Amino acid sequence: MAYAFATALGLLMLVRRRWPLAVLLLTAVLLIVYYVADLPVIGLAVPAAAALYSAALFDRTRWAVGTAAALVVVSTTARLAEGQDPAFLLGYELVSTVAIMGAAIALGTGSARGRRAPASAS
User: Is residue 49 part of a domain?
Assistant: First the structure.
């Protein structure tokens, strides 16, 4: 079952430029369903990073930030409820996940601004 989720998440990346917001939301839904299905724990940053980047790139930064925050809350809550070590989860995993997700959003936003900036005469 976990492989089916991985495949679905990967296939979504093929259309992320055409439908960035839909891909972001479907990615979030798939990740939440994955946790509800009680499959082996996975991190959020890698499966969500490209969708967050694309949403921010196409001027959906608020959606990207909100979705990232919701995913972090759901994931952290689910993993703590499963009995994972809070020191590891909150002291290491949470920090790295938020950093990677934030970097993906910042890179998408920065790339979008770079696209809109007029070319300077050299």
Answer: yes
